[in-house]
Amino acid sequence: MRVCLVTSSFLPGVGGAEVVVHNLATALVRLGHAVTVLAPRSSRPYRRIVPYTLETFLPGTLPLLNRDGWWGEAYLLGTLARLRGRFDVVNLHFALPLGPALVRHRRFVGTPILLTFHGTDIQTEPSLGYGLRLDPRLNSKIREATNGADGLVAISSSVRQAILEVLEAPKPVFDIPNGVWVDRFRGGRPRGLFRARIGVPADAPLVLAVGRHHPKKGFVYLVEAMRAVADEEPEVRCAIVGRGVRDLKDQVDRLGLSRVVHLVEEIGPEVDGKGPLVFPPESLVDAYRDCDVFVSPSLMEGCSLVVLEALAAGCAVVATDAPGNRDAVQDGVNGLVCRPRDPQDLARKILAVVRDAGLRERLGAAARRRALAYDWLEVARRYGEAYAQVKEGRVEG
To answer: Distances from the Cα of 66 to the Cαs of 90, 100, 102, 124, 382, in angstroms?
Structure first.
């Protein structure tokens, strides 16, 4: 099938949605689809090192769409005319800023449009100020894109529920999660490389959390939980890895945890346009391989890539009972579930896993089995089925 993935944010940016589009396009190519990614012009240097075709918008299209609807749409039509008749389906990632204009001018595309949401473009959490729909103007645009597309992809049950809140008439909604390259986490480099890098002894129990520092990630609750963990098990160490996590240093120092909690701002080389483009980087795979417990203290997720990576690595997972975590982690089966915003409960669950080697082994084995359902080739296969249904006009989401 001839597929065009359209995204307003892509390489060299490296975030969850950017990684998803790259990995999905790569997996679709492996399954035999002809794939083009339409991305911002800043992505052009990567054309030579990706396995799919990479094209870019006309200059100024995305900035104009964000600032001035009329001029932005005019530039967008120039790009769409260039794509007309070349594809069987267009898969738009992110509802904004492209969604409303794309569905209004679908005749310039000439193919069905499937819209994949990534979280902030459909979910809301007022207590965190999270979600574009909290802005009435943006909410109206997201509703237009949602109701104008031919089909919708929900990456988790909470995203599906948010979609249903804005749908005005029945429409196919396909439940397709994000993915993980399961084989990346089997074998490979020796254990201990990440511990050596950050100065954690080989015999110290290691708790790992991964993600950018944002209130929805709940890292402040993990740091507080580590005070209680360290009081009972002084040898336990914790590594929080991701962009902006050094902002937690004041809290770490105030709680006397500078020896216990390691804040790792960077985990791998920046994407430099030379390739190979492999996500997550090997240095992050090393971190999963070295930890005893992986923790997701999030308050809100769409479909967490880092949780899927932890499952694929066979980590014993402790995750909050939060949107986006519930689909992947089953309490007592492939992980332990704790209450959001509750450092004491989080500490109890971490201690339970640290102290029980048998529990760690059982949860880790179940995690590996669970991860198979999220392998990128399986996810791409499900996307292929959704593309075929939308192309043929069947409402079976």
So the answer is: 21, 12, 14, 21, 32
**DSSP letters along 360-385, please?**
HHHHHHHHHHHHGGGBHHHHHHHHHH
Domain check: are 303 and 189 in the same one? yes
The CATH number given to whatever domain includes residue 171 is: 3.40.50.2000
The one-character DSSP state at 177 is -
pLDDT in tens, 31-50: 999 999 999 999 999 999 99
Kindly give, in sequence order, each residue whose CB lies less than 8 Å from that of residue 164, ignoring residues fewer than 6 positions away: 173
Q: Contact at 8 Å (CB) between 52 and 36?
A: yes
Tell me, yes or no, whether 248 and 192 share the same domain. Answer: yes
Q: Which residue numbers in the chain have pLDDT < 50?
A: 395-397
The answer on 150 and 116 residing in a single domain is: yes
- Same domain flag for 201 and 157: no
Between the alpha carbon of residue 87 and those of residues 12, 37, 83, 113, 273, the distances in Å are 25, 12, 8, 11, 27
| Count of CA atoms in the C-beta half-sphere (13 A) of 335 | 31
Helix (H) or strand (E) holding 335: strand 335-338
In the chain, the amino acid numbered 184 is R
Same domain membership, residue 95 and residue 25: yes
Q: For residue 319, what are the β-bridge partners?
A: 296, 337
Number of domains in the chain: 2
Domain span at residue 107? 2-179+376-392
Q: Are residues 160 and 201 in the same domain?
A: no
For residue 397, is it within any domain? no
Same domain, 278 and 347: yes
The residue written with tokens 């929805």 in the block is 216
- Cα separations (Å) of 351 from 115, 195, 293? 42, 20, 10
Terminal C-alpha separation, the chain: 19
- Given a contact cutoff of 8 angstroms between Cβ atoms, the answer to whether 319 and 307 are in contact is yes
DSSP 279-318: SS-HHHHHHHHH-SEEEE--S--SS-HHHHHHHHTTPEEE
Summarize pLDDT for 257-281 with one digit per residue, the tens: 999 999 999 766 666 677 778 889 8
- pTM (2 d.p.): 0.95
Judgement on whether residues 148 and 225 belong to the same structural domain of the protein: no
